[in-house]
Design goal:
Layout: H1 7-26, H2 31-38, H3 42-50, H4 57-66, H5 71-75
Length: 77
Amino acid sequence: MPSDHPEWIIEGRRALGERIADLRTAAHYTQETFCEATGLSRSTLQRIESGEGDPRFSELMRIAAVLDTRVAVLVSD
């Protein structure tokens, strides 16, 4: 994770990752089955859920589609 990001960005990524992980588990997906459903690699999902990576909008769209929600729900506070 680049060290030049302010703390509020780092915290926002962590919150996003936690929200996605919570929604995924509430929908009864393991990381493996969720990766199969979204077409994301396991390492990509792990980076997103841990808050270590900046997910692409297309990745968020895939995640939202599988969770039957909108991207706005994923990124809202």
